[in-house]
ROK family transcriptional regulator (Amycolatopsis methanolica 239), 346 residues
Amino acid sequence: MSNAAAVLGAIRREGPLSRAAIAELTSLSMPTVSRQVAALAEARLVRDVPDLARAGAVGRPRVPVDIDDTVLAACGVHIGVRTTTFGIVDLRGRLVGSEKIPTPRGSAEDGLAFLAAKVRAFLRRWRERRVAGLGLATGGQVDIARGLITHDRLGWHRAPAQAVLSRGTGLPVHVDGHVPAMAHAELLFGEGKQYPSLLYFYARQVVGAALVVNGVLHRGPGQAGSVAHLPVGGDVRCPCGRTGCLEATVNDQTDRGALAERAATMGRAVAILRDVVNPDQVVLGGQNITDAPEHLATLLHAFAATTALPGTDLVTVTRFGPDVQAVAACTGVLADIFADPTPLMA
Protein backbone atom coordinates (compact mmCIF):
# COMPACT_ATOMS: atom_id res chain seq x y z
CA MET A 1 0.00 0.00 0.00
CA SER A 2 1.33 3.42 -0.93
CA ASN A 3 1.63 6.21 1.62
CA ALA A 4 -1.09 8.10 -0.25
CA ALA A 5 -3.46 5.12 0.00
CA ALA A 6 -2.68 4.70 3.71
CA VAL A 7 -3.45 8.35 4.44
CA LEU A 8 -6.59 8.39 2.29
CA GLY A 9 -7.79 5.15 3.86
CA ALA A 10 -7.38 6.49 7.39
CA ILE A 11 -9.32 9.63 6.51
CA ARG A 12 -12.06 7.65 4.77
CA ARG A 13 -12.54 5.27 7.70
CA GLU A 14 -11.99 7.61 10.65
CA GLY A 15 -12.17 11.20 9.38
CA PRO A 16 -12.26 14.04 10.02
CA LEU A 17 -8.74 13.61 11.45
CA SER A 18 -5.91 15.91 12.39
CA ARG A 19 -2.58 15.32 10.69
CA ALA A 20 -1.20 14.10 14.01
CA ALA A 21 -4.00 11.55 14.30
CA ILE A 22 -3.34 10.38 10.74
CA ALA A 23 0.34 9.93 11.57
CA GLU A 24 -0.57 7.87 14.62
CA LEU A 25 -3.01 5.66 12.72
CA THR A 26 -0.69 5.06 9.76
CA SER A 27 2.68 5.00 11.59
CA LEU A 28 3.94 7.57 9.08
CA SER A 29 6.03 10.59 10.04
CA MET A 30 4.40 14.01 10.31
CA PRO A 31 6.34 15.40 7.31
CA THR A 32 5.22 12.40 5.21
CA VAL A 33 1.61 12.83 6.29
CA SER A 34 1.71 16.55 5.52
CA ARG A 35 3.10 15.92 2.03
CA GLN A 36 0.50 13.26 1.27
CA VAL A 37 -2.37 15.37 2.57
CA ALA A 38 -1.22 18.29 0.42
CA ALA A 39 -1.06 16.09 -2.69
CA LEU A 40 -4.43 14.46 -1.96
CA ALA A 41 -5.98 17.89 -1.41
CA GLU A 42 -4.59 19.16 -4.72
CA ALA A 43 -6.25 16.18 -6.42
CA ARG A 44 -9.53 17.08 -4.63
CA LEU A 45 -9.60 13.79 -2.75
CA VAL A 46 -9.43 15.41 0.71
CA ARG A 47 -9.88 18.89 2.15
CA ASP A 48 -9.21 20.80 5.34
CA VAL A 49 -12.22 21.43 7.57
CA PRO A 50 -11.21 24.52 9.58
CA ASP A 51 -14.67 24.87 11.12
CA LEU A 52 -13.98 21.66 13.07
CA ALA A 53 -10.66 22.86 14.54
CA ARG A 54 -10.83 22.59 18.31
CA ALA A 55 -11.48 26.00 19.85
CA GLY A 56 -9.32 27.14 22.75
CA ALA A 57 -6.48 24.69 22.09
CA VAL A 58 -2.98 25.81 23.06
CA GLY A 59 -0.63 26.51 20.15
CA ARG A 60 -1.37 26.22 16.44
CA PRO A 61 -4.87 24.85 15.78
CA ARG A 62 -4.99 21.29 14.47
CA VAL A 63 -7.19 21.64 11.41
CA PRO A 64 -8.93 18.33 10.67
CA VAL A 65 -8.80 16.73 7.23
CA ASP A 66 -11.79 14.96 5.69
CA ILE A 67 -12.84 13.38 2.41
CA ASP A 68 -13.63 15.98 -0.25
CA ASP A 69 -17.00 14.87 -1.56
CA THR A 70 -17.70 17.95 -3.67
CA VAL A 71 -15.79 17.39 -6.93
CA LEU A 72 -14.69 13.84 -7.78
CA ALA A 73 -17.34 11.23 -8.54
CA ALA A 74 -17.80 7.74 -9.94
CA CYS A 75 -20.39 6.76 -12.52
CA GLY A 76 -21.95 3.32 -12.68
CA VAL A 77 -24.17 1.25 -14.97
CA HIS A 78 -26.12 -1.73 -13.68
CA ILE A 79 -27.47 -3.90 -16.50
CA GLY A 80 -30.45 -5.89 -15.28
CA VAL A 81 -32.58 -8.38 -17.15
CA ARG A 82 -35.36 -5.81 -17.67
CA THR A 83 -34.00 -2.51 -16.35
CA THR A 84 -30.66 -0.73 -16.70
CA THR A 85 -29.75 1.82 -14.03
CA PHE A 86 -27.26 4.68 -14.28
CA GLY A 87 -25.86 6.25 -11.13
CA ILE A 88 -23.31 8.79 -9.99
CA VAL A 89 -21.90 8.80 -6.45
CA ASP A 90 -19.53 11.03 -4.50
CA LEU A 91 -16.41 9.78 -2.71
CA ARG A 92 -18.50 8.71 0.29
CA GLY A 93 -20.59 6.39 -1.86
CA ARG A 94 -23.62 8.66 -1.59
CA LEU A 95 -25.88 8.66 -4.61
CA VAL A 96 -25.90 12.06 -6.31
CA GLY A 97 -28.26 11.10 -9.11
CA SER A 98 -29.64 8.14 -11.05
CA GLU A 99 -31.73 7.20 -14.06
CA LYS A 100 -33.45 4.00 -15.22
CA ILE A 101 -34.14 2.83 -18.76
CA PRO A 102 -35.30 -0.48 -20.28
CA THR A 103 -32.35 -2.79 -20.91
CA PRO A 104 -31.61 -2.72 -24.65
CA ARG A 105 -32.31 -5.84 -26.67
CA GLY A 106 -30.47 -7.14 -29.69
CA SER A 107 -26.76 -7.79 -30.10
CA ALA A 108 -24.36 -7.15 -27.24
CA GLU A 109 -22.22 -4.75 -29.29
CA ASP A 110 -25.23 -2.63 -30.29
CA GLY A 111 -26.64 -2.69 -26.76
CA LEU A 112 -23.35 -1.66 -25.19
CA ALA A 113 -22.81 1.11 -27.75
CA PHE A 114 -26.33 2.36 -26.99
CA LEU A 115 -25.56 2.36 -23.26
CA ALA A 116 -22.30 4.25 -23.82
CA ALA A 117 -24.26 7.01 -25.57
CA LYS A 118 -26.77 7.06 -22.71
CA VAL A 119 -23.91 7.37 -20.19
CA ARG A 120 -22.54 10.39 -22.06
CA ALA A 121 -25.97 12.03 -22.02
CA PHE A 122 -26.46 11.18 -18.33
CA LEU A 123 -23.11 12.71 -17.33
CA ARG A 124 -23.89 15.96 -19.12
CA ARG A 125 -26.27 16.63 -16.22
CA TRP A 126 -23.33 16.61 -13.81
CA ARG A 127 -20.79 18.90 -15.45
CA GLU A 128 -19.66 20.23 -12.07
CA ARG A 129 -18.36 16.77 -11.18
CA ARG A 130 -15.04 15.29 -12.32
CA VAL A 131 -15.86 11.66 -13.08
CA ALA A 132 -12.94 9.35 -12.26
CA GLY A 133 -14.28 6.27 -14.03
CA LEU A 134 -17.23 4.13 -15.03
CA GLY A 135 -18.29 0.98 -13.22
CA LEU A 136 -20.35 -1.75 -14.86
CA ALA A 137 -22.18 -4.38 -12.81
CA THR A 138 -24.40 -7.13 -14.15
CA GLY A 139 -25.48 -10.71 -13.65
CA GLY A 140 -24.36 -13.70 -15.65
CA GLN A 141 -20.72 -14.71 -15.98
CA VAL A 142 -18.28 -11.80 -15.70
CA ASP A 143 -14.63 -12.10 -16.70
CA ILE A 144 -13.23 -9.24 -14.65
CA ALA A 145 -9.69 -9.49 -15.98
CA ARG A 146 -10.76 -9.29 -19.64
CA GLY A 147 -13.88 -7.17 -19.18
CA LEU A 148 -16.13 -9.75 -20.84
CA ILE A 149 -19.76 -10.58 -20.03
CA THR A 150 -21.70 -13.74 -20.77
CA HIS A 151 -25.37 -13.27 -19.87
CA ASP A 152 -27.67 -16.01 -21.15
CA ARG A 153 -30.86 -14.13 -20.36
CA LEU A 154 -29.68 -11.20 -22.49
CA GLY A 155 -28.26 -13.45 -25.21
CA TRP A 156 -24.73 -12.10 -24.67
CA HIS A 157 -21.69 -14.36 -25.01
CA ARG A 158 -18.27 -13.00 -24.07
CA ALA A 159 -19.43 -9.48 -24.88
CA PRO A 160 -16.46 -7.03 -24.78
CA ALA A 161 -18.23 -4.72 -22.33
CA GLN A 162 -15.15 -3.01 -20.93
CA ALA A 163 -13.70 -2.21 -24.35
CA VAL A 164 -16.96 -0.97 -25.88
CA LEU A 165 -17.91 1.23 -22.92
CA SER A 166 -14.42 2.66 -22.53
CA ARG A 167 -14.25 3.47 -26.24
CA GLY A 168 -17.73 4.99 -26.18
CA THR A 169 -17.31 7.13 -23.05
CA GLY A 170 -13.59 7.89 -22.87
CA LEU A 171 -13.55 6.68 -19.26
CA PRO A 172 -11.66 3.84 -17.60
CA VAL A 173 -14.16 1.04 -17.00
CA HIS A 174 -14.34 -1.38 -14.07
CA VAL A 175 -16.45 -4.51 -14.72
CA ASP A 176 -17.84 -6.76 -11.98
CA GLY A 177 -20.65 -9.15 -11.19
CA HIS A 178 -23.53 -7.28 -9.65
CA VAL A 179 -23.86 -9.27 -6.42
CA PRO A 180 -20.12 -9.06 -5.60
CA ALA A 181 -20.37 -5.34 -6.39
CA MET A 182 -23.24 -4.98 -3.91
CA ALA A 183 -21.28 -6.83 -1.24
CA HIS A 184 -18.34 -4.53 -1.99
CA ALA A 185 -20.60 -1.52 -1.46
CA GLU A 186 -21.61 -2.90 1.93
CA LEU A 187 -17.93 -3.45 2.75
CA LEU A 188 -16.94 0.13 1.95
CA PHE A 189 -20.02 2.11 2.93
CA GLY A 190 -22.54 -0.12 4.69
CA GLU A 191 -22.81 -2.94 7.21
CA GLY A 192 -19.53 -4.54 6.13
CA LYS A 193 -17.49 -1.88 7.90
CA GLN A 194 -18.66 -3.18 11.28
CA TYR A 195 -18.23 -6.96 11.04
CA PRO A 196 -15.33 -9.37 10.39
CA SER A 197 -17.46 -11.38 7.97
CA LEU A 198 -20.64 -10.74 6.03
CA LEU A 199 -22.93 -12.76 3.77
CA TYR A 200 -24.80 -10.72 1.16
CA PHE A 201 -27.97 -12.19 -0.37
CA TYR A 202 -29.66 -10.56 -3.37
CA ALA A 203 -33.00 -11.33 -5.00
CA ARG A 204 -34.62 -9.65 -7.97
CA GLN A 205 -34.88 -11.16 -11.46
CA VAL A 206 -31.53 -12.73 -10.61
CA VAL A 207 -30.66 -14.34 -7.26
CA GLY A 208 -27.12 -14.38 -5.90
CA ALA A 209 -24.90 -14.31 -2.84
CA ALA A 210 -21.44 -13.03 -1.99
CA LEU A 211 -19.15 -13.30 1.02
CA VAL A 212 -16.85 -10.79 2.72
CA VAL A 213 -14.20 -12.15 5.11
CA ASN A 214 -11.76 -10.00 7.09
CA GLY A 215 -12.48 -6.95 4.99
CA VAL A 216 -11.94 -8.77 1.69
CA LEU A 217 -14.57 -9.75 -0.88
CA HIS A 218 -14.14 -13.48 -1.50
CA ARG A 219 -14.01 -14.54 -5.12
CA GLY A 220 -13.74 -18.03 -6.52
CA PRO A 221 -11.59 -18.85 -9.54
CA GLY A 222 -12.42 -15.92 -11.80
CA GLN A 223 -15.73 -14.98 -10.16
CA ALA A 224 -17.96 -15.37 -7.11
CA GLY A 225 -20.12 -18.46 -6.61
CA SER A 226 -23.71 -18.96 -7.75
CA VAL A 227 -26.81 -19.88 -5.75
CA ALA A 228 -29.35 -19.52 -8.58
CA HIS A 229 -29.81 -23.29 -8.83
CA LEU A 230 -29.77 -24.05 -5.12
CA PRO A 231 -32.53 -26.70 -4.73
CA VAL A 232 -35.29 -25.38 -2.47
CA GLY A 233 -38.14 -27.75 -3.35
CA GLY A 234 -41.36 -26.90 -5.11
CA ASP A 235 -42.58 -27.57 -8.63
CA VAL A 236 -41.52 -24.42 -10.48
CA ARG A 237 -39.59 -25.40 -13.61
CA CYS A 238 -36.26 -23.66 -14.14
CA PRO A 239 -34.86 -22.85 -17.61
CA CYS A 240 -32.05 -25.29 -16.75
CA GLY A 241 -34.63 -28.12 -16.98
CA ARG A 242 -34.87 -28.94 -13.29
CA THR A 243 -37.61 -27.98 -10.83
CA GLY A 244 -37.28 -26.21 -7.51
CA CYS A 245 -34.23 -24.03 -8.27
CA LEU A 246 -34.02 -20.98 -6.01
CA GLU A 247 -33.95 -18.29 -8.71
CA ALA A 248 -36.85 -19.73 -10.68
CA THR A 249 -38.92 -20.27 -7.53
CA VAL A 250 -38.59 -16.75 -6.10
CA ASN A 251 -39.31 -15.22 -9.52
CA ASP A 252 -42.34 -17.36 -10.34
CA GLN A 253 -44.98 -15.00 -11.76
CA THR A 254 -47.71 -17.60 -12.26
CA ASP A 255 -49.14 -17.15 -8.76
CA ARG A 256 -49.02 -13.53 -7.62
CA GLY A 257 -50.75 -14.50 -4.38
CA ALA A 258 -47.75 -16.55 -3.28
CA LEU A 259 -45.51 -13.64 -2.24
CA ALA A 260 -45.45 -14.82 1.36
CA GLU A 261 -44.37 -18.32 0.31
CA ARG A 262 -41.61 -16.87 -1.86
CA ALA A 263 -40.43 -14.82 1.12
CA ALA A 264 -40.36 -18.00 3.21
CA THR A 265 -38.37 -19.75 0.47
CA MET A 266 -35.80 -16.96 0.53
CA GLY A 267 -35.62 -17.17 4.31
CA ARG A 268 -34.90 -20.89 4.18
CA ALA A 269 -32.26 -20.40 1.48
CA VAL A 270 -30.54 -17.65 3.48
CA ALA A 271 -30.53 -19.93 6.54
CA ILE A 272 -28.87 -22.73 4.57
CA LEU A 273 -26.19 -20.35 3.28
CA ARG A 274 -25.70 -18.93 6.77
CA ASP A 275 -25.20 -22.40 8.23
CA VAL A 276 -22.61 -23.24 5.57
CA VAL A 277 -20.41 -20.12 5.92
CA ASN A 278 -21.37 -18.95 9.47
CA PRO A 279 -20.89 -15.18 8.92
CA ASP A 280 -21.06 -12.50 11.61
CA GLN A 281 -23.77 -10.66 9.69
CA VAL A 282 -26.23 -11.30 6.86
CA VAL A 283 -27.40 -8.44 4.62
CA LEU A 284 -30.39 -8.75 2.29
CA GLY A 285 -30.78 -6.68 -0.88
CA GLY A 286 -32.76 -6.55 -4.10
CA GLN A 287 -36.27 -5.43 -4.93
CA ASN A 288 -37.81 -8.84 -4.18
CA ILE A 289 -36.95 -7.94 -0.59
CA THR A 290 -36.93 -4.13 -0.37
CA ASP A 291 -40.15 -3.70 -2.39
CA ALA A 292 -42.07 -6.12 -0.16
CA PRO A 293 -41.39 -5.01 3.44
CA GLU A 294 -44.71 -6.51 4.52
CA HIS A 295 -43.23 -9.97 3.88
CA LEU A 296 -39.90 -9.41 5.65
CA ALA A 297 -41.26 -10.88 8.89
CA THR A 298 -42.18 -14.06 6.98
CA LEU A 299 -38.65 -14.29 5.57
CA LEU A 300 -37.07 -13.78 8.98
CA HIS A 301 -39.39 -16.32 10.61
CA ALA A 302 -38.45 -18.94 7.99
CA PHE A 303 -34.79 -18.09 8.51
CA ALA A 304 -35.05 -18.56 12.27
CA ALA A 305 -36.98 -21.81 11.88
CA THR A 306 -34.42 -23.26 9.45
CA THR A 307 -30.99 -22.23 10.71
CA ALA A 308 -29.26 -24.74 12.97
CA LEU A 309 -26.78 -22.22 14.40
CA PRO A 310 -27.42 -20.14 17.52
CA GLY A 311 -28.44 -16.52 17.09
CA THR A 312 -31.09 -15.34 14.66
CA ASP A 313 -30.82 -11.55 14.98
CA LEU A 314 -27.93 -11.12 12.55
CA VAL A 315 -30.05 -10.45 9.43
CA THR A 316 -30.53 -6.87 8.20
CA VAL A 317 -31.76 -5.24 5.00
CA THR A 318 -29.30 -3.13 3.02
CA ARG A 319 -29.44 0.56 3.80
CA PHE A 320 -29.14 1.33 0.08
CA GLY A 321 -32.72 0.15 -0.53
CA PRO A 322 -33.87 0.54 -4.14
CA ASP A 323 -30.64 2.41 -4.98
CA VAL A 324 -28.49 -0.65 -4.40
CA GLN A 325 -27.90 -1.34 -8.11
CA ALA A 326 -26.76 2.21 -8.85
CA VAL A 327 -24.44 2.44 -5.84
CA ALA A 328 -22.99 -1.02 -6.41
CA ALA A 329 -22.15 -0.30 -10.04
CA CYS A 330 -20.10 2.73 -8.96
CA THR A 331 -18.31 0.99 -6.10
CA GLY A 332 -15.53 -0.66 -8.11
CA VAL A 333 -14.32 2.73 -9.32
CA LEU A 334 -14.22 4.07 -5.76
CA ALA A 335 -12.47 0.94 -4.50
CA ASP A 336 -9.77 1.42 -7.14
CA ILE A 337 -9.30 5.04 -6.03
CA PHE A 338 -8.97 4.09 -2.37
CA ALA A 339 -6.57 1.26 -3.18
CA ASP A 340 -4.32 3.51 -5.27
CA PRO A 341 -5.12 7.23 -5.54
CA THR A 342 -1.80 8.09 -7.20
CA PRO A 343 -3.16 8.14 -10.81
CA LEU A 344 -5.43 11.02 -9.77
CA MET A 345 -2.51 12.81 -8.09
CA ALA A 346 -0.28 12.94 -11.17
